[in-house]
């Protein structure tokens, strides 16, 4: 019994080895990737295991929660997103898909079901991904897991199989490629967010303690460049600039600059500065971090806020001239108070100012703190961030704050021009020409009316309002605005004639 058992297992061993050798020869000689993929899909796991006898496989396992952390691993999420596109969306031979809802994602997230396996091809090499899970830890999950989702749910993994001879290709190029592509899918699928900074006491708007310094809502602003009324040439320049920035990763790396860009939007209230930011975010598909500077207590808090922003985002400080006393006036005041001590104001150490320099809200953020925030830290954090300052009084800002290199592009948002009006007429009234357009064109040249006011006049106020009545109303308002401008000019002329000292610009 023993001898026959031994000879039976010997002969089955020989047969198995022969099959493996033949299979490996066949495998190595299979011409064309498609054939390999066909075979790998249909003979799948068993054939692969046979081939592994002579050409060993390596594996890489990626856990959903690695190192006992509460947060899902970035690598796991990226692989999941990559496989979602690479397999589920195109079929990929996967029969069992899992559908889950996910935070901040609109659609259901599809992923491979447990024990599903899928092949992927990369530069002539074939690799295989297996999804599997293990039961939750019953024992002694660390207390900081707090019995939360990570502790209760099955522990999920992706395992990558590849031939040893593809080791360098897979580890050096394929895996980074998977993570990059996965990230791109995640960015595309995610709901974008509008973040605002918390008050500084760590509680969010609902009075709940928050670990993050930011709270957020879903960003769903409808404005795009298509509905932003401004001079078309200027608009194109901004769009081209944003596109160049988005595609500029290699350029920034080559010239040794952090991948960031600063925009200063200035102009009177109602000319569309906030609207422009929404259009930029929608165009680039970026999140928006809206910093309320008056709630930031110290330069250190400002630094923390910045560090917690993510790539592909626009960081906004609106009305920078009002947020803090970061203006020339403050510099002057300080210079006087310092009794001869020179105020360099530019990029020192971000030291906190004395109490008398705090703004009304109790913030101790200084000009140097903001400058450090803009340039010093840029280089320390990963790229693809845009920072936008808006102001109604560009002339009041300290030149150090807005010099090129910090605020690379200065965009003036001005009163409504005729081209901008035509766009608003199309958007609000669906009208492209009208006998009142000529009157509007000549009045706009002389009257200062913001796009916000033009848009308001073009908005029907009752069911009886139509394009005729709205445009007639606009013409009436423009005539009034024109009279105001003329009266102001005349008043100024009179003042000059009277020798009045017109120094209110220095306020
Ligand atoms: N250029 C524009 N194109 C289209 N709509 C505009 C434009 N400017 C203003 N509006 C309309 O007017 C409203 C107010 O504009 P917005 O808040 O963008 O102006 P702002 O320049 O940021 O003003 P403020 O300086 O007071 O913050 C917007 O909701 C938008 O509907």
Characterise this structure:
This protein has 507 residues and is α/β, with parallel strands linked by helices. 43% of the residues lie in helices and 15% in strands. It has 17 helices and 13 strands. The protein has helices at 2-29, 33-51, 74-88, 149-152, 167-189, 232-246, 249-255, 273-284, 299-307, 320-323, 328-337, 367-376, 399-402, 418-429, 437-446, 451-457, 467-497; strands at residues 57-63, 97-100, 109-112, 117-122, 125-134, 155-163, 193-197, 214-218, 260-266, 287-290, 313-317, 385-391, 409-412. Helix 9 links the parallel strand 10 (287-290) and strand 11 (313-317). Helix 1 (2-29) packs antiparallel against helix 2 (33-51), helix 3 (74-88) packs across helix 5 and helix 15 runs parallel beside helix 17 (467-497). Mean pLDDT is 77; it is low at 1-7, 30-35, 141-147, 339-360 and 500-507. It binds adenosine-5'-triphosphate. Adenosine-5'-triphosphate (ATP) binds at residues 228-230, 269-275, 392, 413, 451-452, 455.
Task: Give a topology summary.
Blueprint: H1 2-29, H2 33-51, E1 57-63, H3 74-88, E2 97-100, E3 109-112, E4 117-122, E5 125-134, H4 149-152, E6 155-163, H5 167-189, E7 193-197, E8 214-218, H6 232-246, H7 249-255, E9 260-266, H8 273-284, E10 287-290, H9 299-307, E11 313-317, H10 320-323, H11 328-337, H12 367-376, E12 385-391, H13 399-402, E13 409-412, H14 418-429, H15 437-446, H16 451-457, H17 467-497
The structure holds adenosine-5'-triphosphate (ATP).
Adenosine-5'-triphosphate (ATP) binds at residues 228-230, 269-275, 392, 413, 451-452, 455.
């Amino acid at each position: 019994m023993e001898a026959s058992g031994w000879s039976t297992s010997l002969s089955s061993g020989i047969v198995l080895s022969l099959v493996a050798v033949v299979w490996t020869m066949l495998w190595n000689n299979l011409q064309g990737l498609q054939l390999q993929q066909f075979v790998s899909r249909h003979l799948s796991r068993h054939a692969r295991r046979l081939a592994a006898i002579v050409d060993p496989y390596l594996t890489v396992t990626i856990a959903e929660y690695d190192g006992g952390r509460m947060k899902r691993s970035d690598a796991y999420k990226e692989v999941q997103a990559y496989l979602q596109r690479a397999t589920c969306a195109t079929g990929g031979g996967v029969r069992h898909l899992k559908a889950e809802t996910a935070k901040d994602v609109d659609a259901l997230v599809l992923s491979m079901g447990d024990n599903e396996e899928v092949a992927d091809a990369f530069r002539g090499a074939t690799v295989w991904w297996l999804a599997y899970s293990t039961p939750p830890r019953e024992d002694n999950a660390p207390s900081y897991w707090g019995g939360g989702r990570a502790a209760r749910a099955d522990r999920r993994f992706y395992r990558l199989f590849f031939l040893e001879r593809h080791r360098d290709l897979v580890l050096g190029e394929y895996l980074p490629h998977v993570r990059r592509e996965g990230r791109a899918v995640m960015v595309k699928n995610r709901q974008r967010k509008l973040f605002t900074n918390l008050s500084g006491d760590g509680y969010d708007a609902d009075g709940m303690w928050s670990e993050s310094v930011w709270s957020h809502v879903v960003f769903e602003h409808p404005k795009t460049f298509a509905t932003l009324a401004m001079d078309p040439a200027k608009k194109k320049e901004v769009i081209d600039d944003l596109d160049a920035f988005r595609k500029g990763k290699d350029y920034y790396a080559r010239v040794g600059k952090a991948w960031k860009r600063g925009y200063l939007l200035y102009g009177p209230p109602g000319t569309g500065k906030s609207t422009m930011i929404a259009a930029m975010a929608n165009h680039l598909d970026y999140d928006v971090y809206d910093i309320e500077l008056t709630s930031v207590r110290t330069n250190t808090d400002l630094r923390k806020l910045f560090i917690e922003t993510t790539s592909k985002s626009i960081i906004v400080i609106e009305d920078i001239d009002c947020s803090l006393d970061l203006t020339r006036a403050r510099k002057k005041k300080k210079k006087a108070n310092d009794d001869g001590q020179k105020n360099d104001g530019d990029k020192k150490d971000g030291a906190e100012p004395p109490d008398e320099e705090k703004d009304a809200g109790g913030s101790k953020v200084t000009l140097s703190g903001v400058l450090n925030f803009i340039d010093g830290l840029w280089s320390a954090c990963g790229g693809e961030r845009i920072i936008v300052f808006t102001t109604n009084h560009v002339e009041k800002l300290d030149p150090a704050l807005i010099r090129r290199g910090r605020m690379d592009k200065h965009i003036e948002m001005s009163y409504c021009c005729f081209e901008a009006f035509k766009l608003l007429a199309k958007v609000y009234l669906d009208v492209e020409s009208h006998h009142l357009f000529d009157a509007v064109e000549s009045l706009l040249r002389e009257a200062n009316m913001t796009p916000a006011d033009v848009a308001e006049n073009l908005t029907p106020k009752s069911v009886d309002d139509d394009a005729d009545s709205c445009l007639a109303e606009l013409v009436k308002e423009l005539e009034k605005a024109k009279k105001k401008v003329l009266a102001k000019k005349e008043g100024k002329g009179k003042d000059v004639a009277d020798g009045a000292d017109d120094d209110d610009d220095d306020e």
